[in-house]
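tokens incoming
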């Protein structure tokens, strides 16, 4: 896959969906609403007929295609999300909101990667 296509795929497949549900939540949203949204965004980042992929698995699959570029920011953000995924059901409200912020940062980092590498 060409670099431009690979960067676009990261932007679309990971960046678009890693913070899709949680982005609609407001300050008055409940902890359970955040937990449910993050469960979808992080654990079911890519959904398809062959099954679901969480954000860590998806990034591991997509990363080799863009490895020649600086992926340190995304690597760090996805690692944080992976840690949060393992404890999602036990995280308190303020932490859920911080995790949502990390997911938003990951989505933005995917967008920037696409822009830097000539994606749309």
């Amino acid at each position: 896959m060409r670099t431009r296509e690979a960067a676009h795929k990261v932007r679309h497949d990971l960046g678009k969906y890693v913070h899709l549900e949680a982005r609609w939540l407001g300050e008055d949203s409940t902890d359970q609403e955040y937990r449910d949204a993050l469960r979808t965004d992080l654990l079911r980042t890519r959904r398809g007929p062959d099954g679901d992929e969480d954000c860590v698995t998806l990034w591991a699959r997509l990363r080799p295609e863009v490895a020649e570029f600086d992926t340190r920011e995304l690597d760090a953000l996805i690692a944080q999300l992976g840690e949060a995924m393992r404890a999602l059901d036990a995280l308190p409200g303020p932490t859920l909101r911080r995790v949502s912020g990390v997911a938003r940062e990951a989505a933005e980092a995917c967008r920037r990667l696409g822009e830097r590498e000539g994606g749309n």
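note: The chain has a mean pLDDT of 92.
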